[in-house]
Amino acid sequence: MPLRYVLAACLAALLLTSCQQEGPRPESPEAAAPAAGAAGEAPAPDRQSDAGAGNAEYPTLVVTTLDGDRYELADRRGRWVVVNFWATWCAPCLKEMPELSALDAMREHVEVIGLAYEDTDADTLRAFLDKHPVAYPVAIVDTYDPPRDFPTPRGLPLTCLVAPDGRLVKTFLGPVTAAELEDAIAAAGGPAPGRPG
């Protein structure tokens, strides 16, 4: 096998694992289950998965944003909602933030909520967002008690697409583009990219 293919494969693997957490929490069911795969290795996570990736087909989410507002997913019925788990230390997360912000600002039928999945405080996160502003609301979630109806992030970024009826339709592990989200919306019965909602 040519060296360039080996190097490309190594680079791809490095990018996918760059924002992986150190491992599951001891109290999680995944921690008690033995790893599957060749030679005891855990299988690589899928880049995308269909509905059912979370704990609920119709997830709930109630958080307080950094602005002090109550954000409730149920109040967003009739819109596509992008739920993005991210962290300030995650380079791929930071790279996708401007695209998610543009999607939120430019598409009337799409709304983004950022969930900071890290041990930080509101003042530190506000200072970070002053340097990396986004158009969508951001809330801090407890890494030891993340929203139960969504997949527990085993790597970041993790993005979940919720349909206007409240159904979880797609989950992306790793960075996602606005184009990929719009294609997923169209595939799930929403408007085609570039069309009003």
TrEMBL record:
Residues 38-190 form the Thioredoxin domain. One of its GO terms (biological process) is cytochrome complex assembly. GO terms for cellular component: cell envelope. It comes from the Bacteria. This is TlpA family protein disulfide reductase. GO terms for molecular function: antioxidant activity; disulfide oxidoreductase activity. Residues 29-45 have a biased composition (Low complexity). Transmembrane segments: none annotated. It holds the Pfam family AhpC-TSA. The keyword Disulfide bond applies. It is found in: Cell envelope. Coiled coil: none annotated. Residues 22-56 are annotated as: Disordered. InterPro entries: AhpC/TSA, Thioredoxin-like_sf, Thioredoxin_CS, Thioredoxin_domain, Thioredoxin_ResA/DsbE_sf. Keywords: Cytochrome c-type biogenesis, Disulfide bond, Redox-active center, Signal. The keyword Signal applies. Residues 1-21 form the signal peptide.
